[in-house]
Design goal:
InterPro entries: Homeodomain-like_sf, HTH_RpiR, RpiR-like, RpiR-like_SIS, SIS_dom, SIS_dom_sf, WH-like_DNA-bd_sf. By secondary structure, this protein is of the alpha/beta class. The protein is built from 11 helices and 7 strands. The longest helix has 19 residues.
Length: 243
């Protein structure tokens, strides 16, 4: 029986699970250990290790170690699948852009975040975090919401538009109503710095991310770069509030 394919975890005792976790997290070390070394590091007895090895389907300790020696897990980088983005996903001046946008938000009276579809979740997330910091922030995820009328008499407002493509027709129509409004500062968070919404905005917080679709329809692209922008912006804002 393959150790890492062992599925009947409910049959394992608490001591078994302790050994299971230690071995599965340290296969590259365990392959060179003796029974007593595993027992010592897992803080269990030698006999507990042997009972565990037999319980998961191996006839002997050498058989167990032979499996570990040939297991693909040992030759794969453990963190490669967790590397979603790095500095190359953002423009070189992203820190300066974040500072400029944060300063504009700090001096504003109202913050509105816009987004539809998947970007609606990012807009809501951003508004909620800024509200925690004491800003009058609200998320609009309905492109037909009468935002122009709501902000008719408002002053010193920032609108942050989340759009991966920057070409969403409904958002373009909504944002276009504020392009010539001196009381509104437009900010675009998009992967396309040359997009229509980006060109309409004063500030652009851009990122690059490979688009991933399932069946050419369902967008499964990562939003982690967007979350990084949101949380980095909040970090700058928090410093402004507390300093």
């Amino acid at each position: 029986m393959a150790f890492f394919g062992f599925k009947d975890l409910s049959s394992l005792s608490s001591v078994d699970m302790t050994i299971y976790r230690y071995v599965s997290q340290n296969p590259d070390k365990v392959v060179y250990m003796r029974v007593r070394d595993i027992a010592q590091n897992a803080h269990v007895s030698n006999s507990s290790v042997m009972r565990f090895i037999h319980k998961i389907g191996f006839n002997s300790f050498p058989e167990f170690k032979a499996y570990l020696s040939h297991n693909d897990l040992l030759s794969k980088p453990k963190v490669s699948e967790m590397t979603y983005f790095d500095a190359s996903n953002f423009p070189k001046d992203i820190s300066l852009r974040l500072e400029l946008v944060a300063n504009a938000i700090y001096q504003s009276d109202n913050v509105v975040t816009l987004g539809i579809g998947e970007s609606a979740f990012m807009a809501e997330y951003a508004a909620r975090r800024m509200a925690f910091l004491g800003y009058n922030a609200n998320a609009i995820t309905d492109p037909f919401y009468p935002l122009h009328g709501k902000l008719k008499n408002a002053v010193n407002t920032i609108i942050i538009c989340f759009s991966v493509s920057g070409e969403t027709t409904e958002l373009i129509e909504l944002v276009n109503k504020f392009v010539n409004n001196d009381e509104v500062t437009l900010v675009c968070v998009s992967s396309n710095e040359a997009s229509t919404i980006a060109k309409m905005s004063r500030y652009v917080l851009s990122f690059s991310e490979e688009r991933h679709y399932l069946a050419n329809y369902y967008d499964l692209s990562s939003h982690i770069p967007v979350m990084y922008i949101i949380e980095s912006l909040d970090h700058v804002l928090e410093k402004m509030v507390t300093d």
